[in-house]
Amino acid sequence: MAGRRNAKRIQRLQQSCSARQMETAHSTTRSPILRSNGMRNIQPKGCGFQVIVRRNYTSIYCHTFRKLKDAIKARNKIESENRLTTIDDHFWTYVDRSNGPESCWEWKGSTVKGYGRFNTARGYFLAHRYSYEAAFGPIPANTLIDHICFNHKCVNPKHLRPASNMQNNEHRHGPNRNNRSSGIRGVTWDKNRKQWSVKVMHCYHCYNAGRFNSLRDAEQAAINLRNKLMTFNDLDRTQPTTK
Q1: Do residues 232 and 171 touch, judged by C-beta distance below 8 A?
Q2: Using CA atoms, how far apart are residues 152 and 106, in angstroms rounded to an integer?
Q3: Contact 37/87 with Cβ under 8 angstroms?
Q4: Separation of alpha carbons 132 and 122, rounded Å
Q5: Are 225 and 199 in contact (CB under 8 A)?
Q6: Residue 118 forms beta bridges with which residues?
Q7: Which of 52, 65, 63 has the alpha carbon at shortest distance from 21?
Q8: Highest mean pLDDT, choosing among 33-37, 79-83, 88-92, 141-145
Q9: CA neighbor of 147 nearest in space, from 123, 172, 166, 165
Q10: Segment holding 162, helix H or strand E
């Protein structure tokens, strides 16, 4: 009889949980970065949230709460009392923010292909993606994080924005590596015609803007064509011609 009463009690408790609370429990654990930051030491359990705080692989606190805000409050209190270092605190120890809030915050840790790499017990994250997600929330699927400042080591959230692969390719500076004639994006020297040729690649199509005798005119034609085709080419819209 006691077992049946307990089973019915658990069933009533589960039914009393609102759909909104259950959605909160699942939505807050979708992102691996949020699991390691905002939901650290908290995991959904049944209709509530279980707080487990460990030190040196030993559990020093374990309790389950019905509301997420109560779980977060208890977690923060235990961490503060025991002076535990969070993964977020660990992340910012590798960042140089000495030049102010508007400047580039350069990553001082390890890198991969020029981008900062943040190693944790759950694997590694690209530092700029971790910083963006910690500041603004989960990154949509199939979305890149574009550096507005062109500094791949920068993790300042103000210098980061979501972008598609096409938009990320639009936001570039400088010529292609194989362009050794002009040093200007989209402008090359035509040996046969003895003129500057202007071509812009966009969405796997090559757009021809013609040939020019003046390098300055060719550069301006390339900028005008990119402004017509693209939306993320910030440098073309703010920087004047170089020649």
Answers
A1: yes
A2: 9
A3: yes
A4: 18
A5: no
A6: 125
A7: 65
A8: 141-145
A9: 172
A10: strand 160-163
